[in-house]
């Protein structure tokens, strides 16, 4: 039962993150690119300011939906396919 509570909390985080149009658009952009992308590039494609993009990236990262890595002063994003496969196995194919 305890494991189910932990999984439910993660499910709630994921569903709340995906309930926002902008964050859904970010996931769509990353899925369609099929590789990691610079944060600035994703922000531009989604027509977001830097601060607004950072907020949405953080929300997606905290829900476990994306990975972020730093390389010098650049930040790169990619979809965390493991999370989608575990909690929403066919979701990405619907984008």
Strand order of the largest sheet: 1-3-2
Radius of gyration: 13 Å
Order of helices and strands: HHEHHEEH
Number of domains: 1
The CATH homologous superfamily name equals Winged helix-like DNA-binding domain superfamily/Winged helix DNA-binding domain
The total of beta strands comes to 3
Helix fraction, binned, reads 55-70%
CATH class annotation: Mainly Alpha
Outline: globular
The name of the CATH architecture is Orthogonal Bundle
Q: Strand fraction band?
A: 5-15%
Mean pLDDT: 92
CATH topology: Arc Repressor Mutant, subunit A
Secondary structural class:
alpha+beta
Largest sheet: 3 strands, antiparallel
Outline the fold blueprint.
Elements: H1 2-18, H2 21-33, E1 37-38, H3 39-45, H4 50-62, E2 66-71, E3 74-79, H5 81-87
Antiparallel strand pairs: 1-3, 2-3
Helix pairs in contact: 1-4, 3-4
Characterize the structure shown.
This is ArsR family transcriptional regulator. Pfam families: HTH_20. GO terms for molecular function: DNA binding; DNA-binding transcription factor activity. Keywords: DNA-binding, Transcription, Transcription regulation. The chain contains five helices and three strands; from the N terminus they run ααβααββα. The protein is an alpha+beta fold and 95 residues long. The chain has a single domain (1-94), classed as Arc Repressor Mutant, subunit A. Strands 1-3-2 form a three-stranded antiparallel β-sheet. Helix 1 (2-18) packs antiparallel against helix 4 (50-62) and helix 3 crosses helix 4 (50-62).
